[in-house]
């Protein structure tokens, strides 16, 4: 399944490693160093800090998102719930 994380970015839900509040990044030198290294390797997409509320870390890239961590969590939970539903579409077909 896919998650829309804002700014026309849609990512595969299984590729998400972490979603971090943007305000917490500056409180950790390890996080700052990781972002610096990934930016140097051109693995950071949309690095503009304007309006950024969260950072989504995937296997290959880091995305800056204008959506809050809570909103992204709800979207991911919704996808998880949908994927657990059984497919009853065949029972309605004739």
Structural shape: elongated
Low-confidence parts: none
State the domain count: 1
Q: Strand fraction band?
A: 25-35%
Sheet/helix structural class: alpha+beta
Radius of gyration from CA coordinates: 16 Å
Helix content: 25-40%
Q: Profile the largest sheet.
A: 4 strands, mixed
Average of per-residue pLDDT values: 82
In whole angstroms, the N-to-C terminal distance is: 28 Å
**In order across it, which strands form the biggest sheet?**
3-5-6-4
Number of strands: 6
Taken in chain order, the helices and strands follow as: EEEHHEEEHH
Helix count from the secondary structure assignment: 4
Query: Could you state the oligomeric state of the chains shown?
Result: single chain
Pfam families: RemA-like
Organism: Sediminibacillus albus
Protein name: DUF370 domain-containing protein
InterPro entries: RemA-like
């Amino acid at each position: 399944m896919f998650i829309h994380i804002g700014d026309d970015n849609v990512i595969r839900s299984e590729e998400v490693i972490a979603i971090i509040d943007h305000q917490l990044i500056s409180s950790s030198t390890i996080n700052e160093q990781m972002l610096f290294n990934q930016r140097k390797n051109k693995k950071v997409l949309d690095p503009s800090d304007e309006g950024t509320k969260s950072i989504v870390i995937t296997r290959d890239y880091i995305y800056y998102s204008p959506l809050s961590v809570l909103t992204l969590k709800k979207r991911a939970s919704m996808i998880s719930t949908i994927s657990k539903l059984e497919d009853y579409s065949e029972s309605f077909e004739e």
